[in-house]
Amino acid sequence: MPALLALSVSSPFWQGRDTGLCGYRLSVFGEMPRTGLPDPFSSAAEFERYVAVMQAAGAIEDASFLWWHLRPSIRY
């Protein structure tokens, strides 16, 4: 069982194909719009519009669901 778990946790395969990477999970995770580093925002209003669009799409409940490495604070 441990060998099966090890293969499934960070597999080099994606959709049945060898990706050439040691593990593909982080590559897939990094493509999600609420992870990684965001594109720069020119203003607080632009950030608020982005949050509103993500909420309307059902992708997040509020700005705390943006799991970026760096994110604007809505309090300051």
UniProtKB/TrEMBL annotation:
The keyword Cell inner membrane does not apply. GO terms for molecular function: glutamate-cysteine ligase activity. Gene3D superfamilies: 3.30.590.20. Pfam families: GCS2 (PF04107). InterPro entries: GCL_type2/YbdK_subfam, GCS2, Gln_synth/guanido_kin_cat_dom. It comes from the Bacteria. GO terms for biological process: modified amino acid biosynthetic process. Keywords: Ligase. PANTHER family: GLUTAMATE--CYSTEINE LIGASE 2-RELATED (PTHR36510). This is Carboxylate--amine ligase. It comes from Methylobacterium tarhaniae. The lineage of its organism: Bacteria, Pseudomonadati, Pseudomonadota, Alphaproteobacteria, Hyphomicrobiales.
